[in-house]
Amino acid sequence: MAMAEQRNDKPGRAPNTERRRGWLSRIAPGVRGLTKKDTPENLWVKDPDSGEMLYRPDLEAALWVTPSGNHMRIGTKLRLDYTFDDGRYERIATPVVVDDPLKFPDTIPYPDRLASARKATGEQDSMAIGYGEILGQPAIVVVQDFTFMGGSLGVAAGETFVKAAQEAVKRGCPFVIFTASGGARMQEGTLSLMQMARTTLALNEVKAAGLPYVVVLTDPTTGGVSASYAMLGDVHLAEPNATIGFSGRRVIEQTIRETLPPTFQKSEFLVERGMVDQVVERKDLPEKLSSILKTLMMGRERLPPAA
Question: What is the chain's mean pLDDT, rounded?
Answer without folding.
Answer: 89
